[in-house]
Amino acid sequence: MAFFQGENLWINQLADGVAELVLDVPGGKTNALGAAVLEELGKSLDVLEKEEKFKLLLVRAGKAHGFAAGLDTKTLAEMTPEQIAQLAGQAQRVLDKLEKLRLPSVAVVAGACLGGGLELALACDYRVAIEKSATVFGFPELEIGLIPAWGATVRLPRLIGLERALQMLLGGRRLHPRDALAWGLADAIAADSDAAPPSFLANPTKRVSTDRSRRTWRQKLFESTRLGRWFIMRGARRLLEKRLPDDMPAPWEALEAVRTGLGGGAAAGLDFVREAVCRLAHSDACRNLLQLHQYRDHFRLPSTQQEVAKRIRRVGVLGAAGQGAALVTLAVTKGCQVVLKETDESALGYALLRLVATFQNEVSRGAMSEVEMSRCLNQIRGTTAWRGYDDLELVLDPRDQTSASALSAIEDHVPAQALLASTDALRTVASVQDGVKRPERVAAVHFLHPVGRSVLVELAGSRATSDETLSRLNDFVIALGRFPQRVGDGPGFFVYRFLASYFNEAVLLVKEGMKPERVDEAMARFGMLHGPLEHLDILGWDFVQNLVRAVEPALGHRIPLDDTFGLMVEKKWLGQKTGLGAYRHGKRRLKVHARWVSQLRLHSHVEAPHQMDAISVADQLQLAKDRLVGLMVNEAAWCLHEGVMGQAGELDKALALAGWAPHRGGPIQYAKQIGWENLKQKLLNLASRYGPRYKPCPLLERVIV
Known about the structure:
- The structure is a single chain.
- This protein is an alpha/beta fold.
- It has 3 domains: 4-201 and 213-291, 2-enoyl-CoA Hydratase, Chain A, domain 1; 305-486, NAD(P)-binding Rossmann-like Domain (Rossmann fold); 495-704, N-(1-d-carboxylethyl)-l-norvaline Dehydrogenase, domain 2, CATH 1.10.1040.
- Helices cover 49% and strands 12% of the residues.
- Strands 13-12-11-14-15-16-17-18 form an 8-stranded mixed sheet, with helices on both faces. Strands 1-2-3-4-6-8-10 form a 7-stranded mixed sheet, covered by helices on one side.
């Protein structure tokens, strides 16, 4: 029988004077620490404080999927900024009570320990990490435009050092158990969350001061003096100035919260944090990021047993080249059985060796256990014929230039009900269905590059594709942990079609005399995941040349596409894959490829490309931003106008997941914040100076106003 029983937690009395507090908040896979949970936690601590028979408190989760987290985004979005600040104050008081509890406390962390969950663990005297791939420590608050507000900005620097704390608080660094132990965030690693307390807790005592035994020489040198801490804070500020997008206030508030806690003491630091979260919750960045995360959370809703039973589990992948290897890795990691087909034994052997190396790398960095690696490898079967394809549910074809004849050949080796999906972004679904016996089973599942990190997946079908096919593929993408988006059937589908004019304009800016790194800096400051020229190098200039050719019929009447892409292919300057593109790619940081710039301007029709040097750097950055963002906003409206995307809200969310500055909410939301009259005037001014490609789309006013 529980010593203390509540709706969200209970306390068990174990042997040898050990109390076990079990968090198990009803509804949800993880423990969301809301006001009711915090109130119960405070009451349970009051009870423990009075019981002298206990000498140690273990804090565990009663859920299999995670330790604890802060509030979900839906609840946060429904709260006023003042209510969020009040919750922060309540949490600070409860966690301070835990920190000062008479009993030594130990957080036993199995699974994700994020945000408020990590703040709870930090208030304990010790932390034991359970060694499994799902165990991870981090602060995701910056991703929703807020900051850790329950005491982490004060406790974390004391525990792991200022520099490392800033990496977690500002840089989003997440730690798996081994790294957490090395950094001093965890005191021990255990194999089982139900095991007895670690041996170092045989005679438990309160932790009076931070254990500095793991401090590095750098920490001892810099962090033990006021001057050293000043240098670290100045370095962090300079790094934010260089890398942080404009109009993103949360990291600055987090940095100031740490500074206030260091200089003014814990009470001053906590007071500052409460005021900061109220300011941040009022910001456009926070509102936009919360909406985006609510959209993402929609796809993480728990599935019914019936939905799970219908999921696609047996998948064929035609070749490991291109996206193939990444698709195999993703599928088996999420529990699918994969049959990989290659053209010959040599190609198959090489592909399987690459897959083994990929999983071994995951094990070496602590993201996967040896057992999980073995399970994944056992779910991969290789073939050079069609063995194993007779009972598949889905075949993914990652080969470039997928044709109808190729799909027809596949049809003869798979069950009649199996779905066939091309992942080639440059072929329409309609074009690969010609001559296919069962066109209703054919669709496109387009994984953006790189497959391992991109979260958006475009789904497209033609008029012949059945709704059932698209529905099953939608569920398959969700099961992979990705976010599906229905788009129109056309070359480049939506995202790459949208980006084609953006890439084109970036090249024109360089032709006109702007430095490549300045073009990319302008968009990095705006908040794009990649600058346009860096993005071109990542995708490959040969791919983008084919993309430009494919989308030219749709864009050519409005946007004349440049011939530079063909020049790059001719010179074999293809980007990362060849080491040369807009930049030189090596082990060190990127350097501009000077020969490319000179060749580009040699072919330029601009009479005096050097005239850009007469403009100040600030004005060049503003010009690049105005032209590139203005063109993207206008192109977003054209995609709606031409039916490439159905709704403005879906368009915004899809692009925010695909690399658009997420804190700005998407092109249409950004346009609404600017206002129609201001945007129209900007576009008309650009059109008068640079050509009709900036002429406002007829639909733009309607979707903004």
